[in-house]
Every structure is written in structure tokens, then in C-alpha cells.
């Protein structure tokens, strides 16, 4: 699970997520709810099955579902080294690959997948590779491909140096087959990187974050790519280091950034940690006008449980919604997806008020939500931590019929679930 692995290699880069869990508080709200059909498609049982699906899912044209689990499988890691899985539309599971963490293979895939037109899957692992015991004895991670025959190829192994270390998000792929992603640590300043891996497995660092100079740092979320070849994302740290989101740490409150595929980076917004939220950790969504939409996490003072925000094409920042905790959800750790009508969908790690299993500061095990184009906030499902799951780290996926799919990190029989919400 992420809480076990977000260790720190240097004083300038910390696990903001863990600190927020310690410092957050409880608040209450009563948003509108909408009747939905919720079904659990699969419950993970741990080795040899997967466990703790942190990365979300993708779908193919036939309705099959693909994803990763950060643990489980048949690898020799404690709890398993992680898996790649496939679910049929009816929920029948196939383990496509179990990571071994040995002989240069990766381990602990925390991010989601991307699929090409031939059906090959691409992603990252947080640990493993050829870096040995570097990066807190986990190894520094990999970029991999799994072909349709089930053969895995490690495309690149991070060294933990200037090339980057410990990718926590998946990758995006352009029309030429190049892969782009972020690393949480490493780079020239150990604040993480934006990288490119081409079809030959050659890695190029497009940008090394330097969070002490107004730049971002500690990238947890992945990237999106527009038609002009510009990449957009968020960082948990960096930005205005004087904002001091976590007292005494002086590491900044995070940023929204863009970087071209030739390596020119621009910080679009630096969070202050107050009404705008702080430490964004998920992907952003983008509309045709160039507006970006994302989520920020709660600050450890009474200012709400995080936000939904918009950054327009000119860089103007707006808070669209503030999470209230309790029934209204809190701590939207994952980012957002957007449908063609302009509605936004996402999840929260905490809140919802649905049971005491998760023992979170904001009450409840998380929610799935819709934020309509008209500005209405709707709770689609409040998780209980029981058979439905709880603790949502991943974004949702949307099919052509408007059905939503996602993963919960715990619940079921203890190791997480894959679920579907039908409008």
C-alpha cells in the first residue's frame, strides 16, 4: 500500500500524504445524493490473486477491464510484488502477470495502465528494476510493457539518480508510441522528474523539478497530453515554499504545471494551502477550451476537506467546490475525469460517513462523486469499508454508456475491490 512505500531519500522530499493523514480533522456536510446502481465486480483476496488496487482501471472496446494491484500475485515480496489483471464485463478475473521483483523485473505497480491499438499494456512500477537495493531497499522502479501473449518487457529501469526514481503514477502514450510520466523522487534535485521513454527504451528527462525555487516537486499524479504535444500535471510539493502547508517543513503546497515534449516547463498555479487547498496528488482533466480541472487535498487547519479547482487557459484559478467532510467526502486524493457534457467525476479517500471500518479523521471510507457542468455536487456512493470497499486512491473510468468503474484499496475480504456504478 502507498502508506508503506512513500519513504524519503532526502530532506527536501517528504511524503506529504502521510503527514496530512496525521494532521487532518473532522468536518461534516450533507450534500445531495442521487440513486445509483452499485455493484462489486471483483474482490481481491491477496496472493496468488492481487491485492490493494491503487491505480484505477481502463477499458477496451469490448468492455473488458484492465488494472494493477500494488501487492499480491506470486512474487516473493512480502505480500506479493503486484499484478496486472483483466476482468471480463461480467467480472471474471484473469491474472495477466505477476511481478517477481527479481532479475531486473519491477515490483509494486502503484499507477494505472495505458493500452495501445494492438492490445499491449504499458505502466510503471514503484520498485524493482536493475537498481538493486537503492531507493530505500525497494529498487527505483521501472517502465514496462505487457504484450497480448502475456510476455512482460522492462522498457526502462530507473537508477535513482538524475534519471528519476520511484514512479507512483502510470504513463501516457503519444501516437508515435513514446511514453511520458513522472517520478516522485530523483532528478537533478531529488524533487522528481517528467520523463519520456521512446520505443527503443531510451529515457529522456524532460524536466527535473526543483521545489525550493518556486518550481513544483514530489509528483504523485500522472500526466495528460494535448493534441499540440503539451503535457499537464500536478505536484504535491514545491511552488511557494513560504506557504508552509505543514508547519515547520517549508516545502510548499504544490503546483499545477505544463511541460512541452521538448522540455519547456511552466508553473500554471502555486497553491497557498488555504481556501484553494494544497498538495494536489491526482491527474488533471482538460476541456476543449484549454481549462484544467483537478482536486486538492485538505490543509491541517479548519478550511475544509479539499477542493475541486479549475485553472483556465490564462492561468486564472477558481475553486469550484470545497469538500466538507462527513457525508460530503474529504481528501480527494485521485484526480478527475470529464465526460463530453462537461460533468466531472472523482473519488475521495475519506469522508462519506459510511461506517467506522476505515478509522479516518474525516469520518467514513470515501465516496464516488459527480460534479455536474451546472455546479451541482452529487454523491454517487458512500463506501463502508465492508464488501463494497473503502479508501479510494484511484480515479474513475467512464465507458461509452456513462457507466463508471473504479477501485477501492481495502474492503471485500480485505484486499480491495473493483466496482461499477450505473447511472
Kindly state the percentage of residues in helix: under 10%
Based on DSSP secondary structure assignment, what is the total number of beta strands? 35
Could you tell me the mean pLDDT? 88
Number of helices: 2
Morphology call: globular
Give the C-alpha Rg.
19 Å
Largest sheet: 5 strands, mixed
Instruction: Give the class-level CATH name.
Output: Mainly Beta
Instruction: Say what the CATH topology is.
Output: Neuraminidase
Question: Helices and strands: which structural class?
Answer: mainly beta
Oligomer: single chain
Q: Can you list the strand order of the major beta sheet?
A: 1-32-31-30-29
CATH architecture: 6 Propeller
How many domains is the backbone divided into? 1
β content, as a range?
Answer: 25-35%
The CATH superfamily name is: TolB, C-terminal domain
Amino-to-carboxy terminus distance = 30 Å
Could you name the ranges where pLDDT drops below 50 across 5 or more consecutive residues? Answer: 1-33
3D structure, described in words:
The protein is mainly β. The chain has a single domain (27-422), classed as TolB, C-terminal domain (Neuraminidase, 6 Propeller). Helix content is 3%, strand content 34%. The two termini are 30 Å apart.
Amino acid at each position: 500500500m502507498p502508506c508503506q512505500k512513500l519513504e524519503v531519500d532526502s530532506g527536501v522530499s517528504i511524503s506529504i500524504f502521510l503527514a496530512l493523514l496525521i494532521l487532518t480533522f473532522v468536518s461534516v456536510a450533507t450534500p445531495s445524493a442521487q440513486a445509483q446502481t452499485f455493484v462489486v465486480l471483483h474482490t481481491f483476496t491477496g496472493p496468488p490473486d492481487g491485492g490493494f488496487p491503487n491505480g484505477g482501471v481502463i477499458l477496451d472496446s469490448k468492455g473488458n477491464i484492465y488494472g494493477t494491484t500494488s501487492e499480491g500475485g506470486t512474487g516473493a515480496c512480502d505480500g506479493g510484488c503486484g499484478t496486472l489483471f483483466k476482468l471480463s464485463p461480467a467480472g471474471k478475473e484473469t491474472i495477466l502477470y505477476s511481478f517477481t521483483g527479481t532479475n531486473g523485473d519491477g515490483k509494486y505497480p502503484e499507477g494505472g495502465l495505458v493500452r495501445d491499438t494492438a492490445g499491449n499494456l504499458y505502466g510503471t512500477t514503484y520498485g524493482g528494476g536493475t537498481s538493486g537495493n537503492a531507493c530505500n531497499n525497494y529498487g527505483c522502479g521501472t517502465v514496462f510493457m505487457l504484450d497480448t501473449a502475456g510476455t512482460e518487457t522492462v522498457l526502462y529501469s530507473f537508477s535513482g539518480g538524475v534519471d528519476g526514481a520511484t514512479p507512483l503514477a502510470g504513463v501516457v502514450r503519444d501516437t508515435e508510441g513514446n511514453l511520458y510520466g513522472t517520478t516522485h523522487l530523483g532528478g537533478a534535485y531529488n524533487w522528481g522528474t517528467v520523463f519520456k521513454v521512446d520505443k527503443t527504451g531510451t529515457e529522456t528527462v524532460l524536466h527535473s523539478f526543483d521545489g525550493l525555487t518556486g518550481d513544483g516537486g514530489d509528483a504523485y499524479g500522472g500526466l495528460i497530453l494535448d493534441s499540440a504535444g503539451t503535457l499537464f500535471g500536478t505536484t504535491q510539493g514545491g511552488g511557494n515554499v513560504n506557504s508552509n502547508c505543514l508547519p515547520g517543513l517549508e516545502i510548499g503546497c504544490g503546483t499545477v504545471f505544463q511541460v512541452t515534449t521538448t522540455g519547456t516547463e511552466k508553473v500554471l498555479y502555486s497553491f497557498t494551502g488555504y481556501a484553494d487547498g494544497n498538495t494536489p496528488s491526482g491527474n488533471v482533466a482538460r476541456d476543449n477550451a484549454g481549462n484544467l480541472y483537478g482536486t486538492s487535498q485538505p490543509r491541517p487547519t479548519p478550511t475544509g476537506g479539499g477542493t475541486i479547482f479549475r485553472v483556465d487557459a490564462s492561468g486564472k484559478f477558481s475553486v469550484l467546490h470545497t469538500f466538507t467532510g462527513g457525508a460530503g467526502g474529504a481528501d480527494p486524493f485521485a484526480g478527475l475525469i470529464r465526460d463530453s457534457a462537461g460533468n466531472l467525476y472523482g473519488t475521495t479517500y475519506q469522508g462519506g460517513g459510511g461506517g467506522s471500518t476505515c478509522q479516518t479523521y474525516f469520518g467514513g471510507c470515501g465516496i464516488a462523486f459527480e460534479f455536474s457542468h451546472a455546479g451541482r455536487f452529487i454523491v454517487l456512493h458512500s463506501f463502508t469499508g465492508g464488501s463494497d470497499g473503502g479508501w479510494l486512491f484511484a480515479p474513475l473510468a467512464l465507458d461509452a454508456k456513462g457507466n463508471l468503474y473504479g477501485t477501492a484499496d481495502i474492503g471485500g475480504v480485505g484486499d480491495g475491490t473493483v466496482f461499477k456504478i450505473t447511472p
